[in-house]
Amino acid sequence: MNAAALKHLSAVDPVMARLIREVGACQLEPEPKRTPFQSLVQAVAHQQLNGTAANTILTRFIKLFPKRKFPKPEDLASVTDDQIRACGFSFAKIRAIRDIAAKTLDGTIPSSRTIAKLSDKEIIERLTEARGVGPWTVQMLLIFQLGREDVLPADDFGVRAGFRVAYKKRGMPKPKALLKFGERWRPHATTAAWYLWRAADNAKKKK
Description:
The structure is a single chain. The protein contains twelve helices and no strands. It is mainly α. α1 (about 5-10) packs across α2 and α2 (about 15-25) crosses α12. The chain starts with a helix and ends with a helix.
């Protein structure tokens, strides 16, 4: 993320300015080589789990497809639900992954080339047609695959926890209140979200 984002956030929000000084430069590096299918499957794996557990499950899942760095949607036909379940996915997540694969194959979920041309709103509308894919899941794709600069995942636990810590609030902010507060961060809300994640991480380390 660019220097303009840090300059803007520091100018409009003294707490964010302090956080930027404490944490240092933003290290967010999107992965544009991921396909939308991969991004969504990875996001589903991370739903309601910590990063370590989700990554362990994903490593086992990828091993089901030894010739691939990451399976393609059509590869899922070669494995059973029980094999995927043994990796650690719940049956609800397995149904979601299979639907994501089907909707990738039928074009509902666009290709990497097509998705890059769509607006954030269009991407959210298209991708949330898949089972188990809500706005949060798509926001993770917008941030970590496409590198969109103005995404504020206000429902994200880490973002809300980081806000509570950084702004010294007694309770967790409601998503609506966070969105309203975050208007000052636009058009660089993604960078603000990254710093809130760091605030939450740093608070955990101190404990």
